[in-house]
Design goal:
There is one protein chain. The protein is of the alpha/beta class. The chain has two domains: 82 residues, no CATH class; 224 residues, von Willebrand factor, type A domain (Rossmann fold). It is 39% helix and 19% strand. It contains seven helices and twelve strands. The protein has a six-stranded mixed beta sheet with strand order 5-4-3-6-7-10, sandwiched between helices. It is elongated.
């Protein structure tokens, strides 16, 4: 991160220039040994000041940076039916915890893309329209909660199909050059008696993506969710009220959705690596200049150049002093060699 100075950089350079000019003027007027000492002190002080400014990464407002942006629209379709609170994710956590974690990973994986969040149970809802603000999608995902038990009207795994098709068509019309990826997250459990419709009706609009399944074959109990907030009781089994009902993943149904969409299926568990579940296809990208308010344009190269000049000056001064010292030593030896010596070896 570039440090933004409290004092404008222009003032810093003006003050530094004025200080050097003052030192140079004083040295010129003083001349002699005192002048040389002032010049040396000023040069050393300027080197320290420039080094300090380089460490602080001083700069000017108006900086720009290049970033790579994926030309892709990511459609995240999430099941929020009551079965998504079934406690068979990880060490007895609700399935929705896994969904939230995976959506966060998904937005990071496709950084620079546009995202759209659709949720469904009995009906579908467009939670986040297509946006390049991945943070908004991640934030919306963190607040997802399955529908209240009292309002559950039965769910169908195809409830989001019509809304997904409509959203995909609008995306194709507005940005036909962008890839369209669909990620369907659910447990595949169909509680309505009607046969679900096939997702192949949107396959032509989909370039890639994946279906991710949550839950276990053994199933998990589901806590009731009510308006009163009293969620300690589990939904009872209709056949045996003394036992909690168990929701089980239907991987066959999820694999059918994946096949209809023309994408892969992955069973998600708390111990599996989400990177292995992403679609492996290539996406078009382009580089854009990103100008951010408050960004800093680095002046490091100017500071480095000025420091290099001062270092070269210091080396030249030291080399001159060394040459003068050698000349003085040589003259002294020559003078001593010309002095006549007595028989005892002394002059």
């Amino acid at each position: 991160m570039t440090w933004q100075p409290f004092v404008p950089a222009g003032w810093v350079f003006t003050a530094a220039g004025a200080l050097l000019a003052l030192i140079g003027l004083t040295a010129w007027r003083a001349r002699g040994r005192l002048g040389q000492q002032l010049l040396t002190a000023g040069r050393h002080g300027a080197m320290v000041a420039l080094g300090t400014l380089m460490v602080l990464q001083i700069g000017l407002p108006g900086g720009t940076a290049q970033r790579e942006e994926m030309e892709a629209d990511i459609f995240v379709v999430v099941d929020i039916s009551p079965s998504m609170v079934a406690e068979d994710w990880g060490d007895g956590q609700p399935r929705m915890d896994g969904v939230k974690a995976d959506i966060s990973a998904l937005t990071s994986h496709y950084a620079g893309s546009r995202f759209c969040l659709i949720t469904f149970e009995a009906v579908a809802q467009l939670r986040v329209p297509p946006t390049s603000d991945a943070g908004a999608v991640a934030a919306a995902a963190r607040t997802l909660t399955p529908v209240l038990t009292d309002y559950a009207a039965g769910s169908s795994i195809d409830s989001a199909l019509d809304l997904l098709e409509e959203t995909l068509e609008r995306a194709e019309e507005s940005h036909p050059e962008r890839a369209r990826l669909v990620y369907y997250l659910g447990d595949g459990e169909q509680t309505r008696s009607a046969e679900p419709k096939s997702f192949d009706q949107v396959a032509d609009l989909v370039d890639g993506g994946a279906v991710w399944g949550y839950g276990t074959a053994a199933g998990g109990p589901m806590k009731e969710r009510s308006l009163t907030g009293d969620d300690d009781d589990y939904i009872p089994d209709p056949q045996d009220k003394s036992q909690p009902a168990l929701s089980k993943i239907d991987e066959a149904a999820l694999e059918t959705i994946a096949s209809d969409l023309g994408v892969g299926y992955a069973h998600r568990t708390a111990g599996s690596d989400v990177d292995d579940a992403f679609w492996q296809g290539e996406l078009p990208t382009h580089v854009v200049d990103d100008t951010t308010e408050g960004a800093i344009r680095s002046l490091g190269w100017i500071l480095a150049l000025a420091l290099l000049v001062l270092v070269a000056w210091e080396v030249a001064v030291r080399a001159g002093a060394l040459a003068a010292l050698r000349a003085t030593y040589a003259s002294s030896r020559e003078a001593r060699s010309r002095v006549p010596r007595t028989e005892g070896g002394r002059p």
